[in-house]
Amino acid sequence: MADGNERAVLTTGANSGIGLVTVIELARRGFHSIGSVRSEEKADIVHKAAADAGVEVHTVLLDVNDAEECERAVSGLRLYGLVNNAGYGVNGAVEDVDDEEAHQLFETMVHAPMRLARLAAPQMRAQGKGRIVNVSSVLGTVTAPFAGHYAGAKHALEALSDALRIELARDGIDVVLVEPGGFKTAIWEEFERDIQKRDANGSRFTNAYRRALWGQKLIEPLMGNPQQCAKVIASALESRFPRSRYMVGLDAQMMRFASQVTPTFVRDRVLRLGFGL
Fold first, then answer.
1. Tell me: the pLDDT tens digits for 109-123?
2. pLDDT tens for residues 65-88?
3. Residue 62: which of 92, 82, 48 has the closest Cα?
4. To 5 degrees, how large is the angle CA 15–CA 144–CA 155?
5. Is 259 exposed, middle or buried (0-12, 13-18, 19+ CB in 10 A)?
6. Whole-angstrom Cα distance, residue 228 to residue 226?
7. Cα 134 vs. chain centroid, distance in angstroms?
8. CA proximity to 138, closest of 163, 161, 155
9. Range of the structural domain that residue 117 is part of
10. In the predicted structure, residue 20 carries a pLDDT above the cut 90
């Protein structure tokens, strides 16, 4: 079991989905588990879930897009681990996503994780050890129609994580990427809302969006449980020699394999047929 006094771990986006089950799983394993949330109401969700699980999870109020809040939060914690999980999806054709949507997405999914890593690294270096886990996605390695901005943000997170891993290795700080496939989280509700919004705005991709919604509903029963991701994240924090990447879910492994072995023009043709593009 980890020493809670030495193994404090901050998980962002802790009030739902992968973040919520992760803070509980870390507490079960003896970590001093801390979850960041954006409101007292969301903190209550975390505390209730932790109480139901018979563990203790602490919370901090934090908007990861606020640089000053990030600095205050991290300076008050003696972190062994940081799990950058906070995020959301933006779904839509590239020409249907406006500048504000794109900028906000990259702020939350790319700049915020690197900001927190930058703030946590000096503390970890002083301790001579630390672990940064960035929750990416299989879409950090492949892409698909209507997921261009989301995949672009995850690709950027992967590239920055690769650089950070090399830069911090000599300080005893490991940087790990976790790449989930499809899991039952709120991101799929966001998917449906986004597609309906694009459709309502008269997008030229209306028919393709409807196909995308139909496909999402078809595969939803096959999606995994976020608990699987939580266990992988916890193992990455506990492992003496963590891997640089953990791909989670059979669908993720299949997508990655198909992308590697299928010529681009074939993959493009299959996707165009599937989406009616």
1. 999 999 999 999 999
2. 999 999 999 998 989 999 999 998
3. 82
4. 60
5. middle
6. 5
7. 7
8. 155
9. 8-188+226-257
10. yes
**pTM of the predicted model, to two decimals?**
0.90
- pLDDT score recorded for residue 4: 44
51 lies in a domain? yes
Task: Give the count of domains, the chain.
Answer: 1
> Among all residues, which ones are annotated catalytic?
150
CATH number, domain with residue 72: 3.40.50.720
DSSP the chain: ---TTT-EEEESSTTSHHHHHHHHHHHHTT-EEEEEESSHHHHHHHHHHHHHHT---EEEE--TT-HHHHHHHHHT--EEEEEE-------S-GGGS-HHHHHHHHIIIIIHHHHHHHHHHHHHHHHT-EEEEEE--GGGT---TT-HHHHHHHHHHHHHHHHHHHHHGGGTEEEEEEEE--BSSTHHHHHHHHHHHHHHTT-TTHHHHHHHHHHHHHHGGG-B-HHHHHHHHHHHHH-SS--SEEEESHHHHHHHHHHHHS-HHHHHHHHHHHHT-
207 assigned to some structural domain: no
Each residue's pLDDT tens digit, 261-275: 889 899 889 889 988
Distance CA 59, CA 44 (A): 9
Order of strands, sheet of 58-61, starting from the edge strand that comes earlier in the sequence: 58-61, 32-37, 8-11, 79-84, 130-135, 173-180, 245-248
Give the residue among 105, 63, 65 at the shortest CA–CA distance from 88.
Answer: 105
Query: Helix 187-200 vs helix 206-219: angle between axes, to the nearest 10 degrees?
Result: 160
Task: Answer whether residue 198 is part of any domain.
Answer: no
Question: Is residue 41 situated within a structural domain?
Answer: yes
Amino acid at 50: A
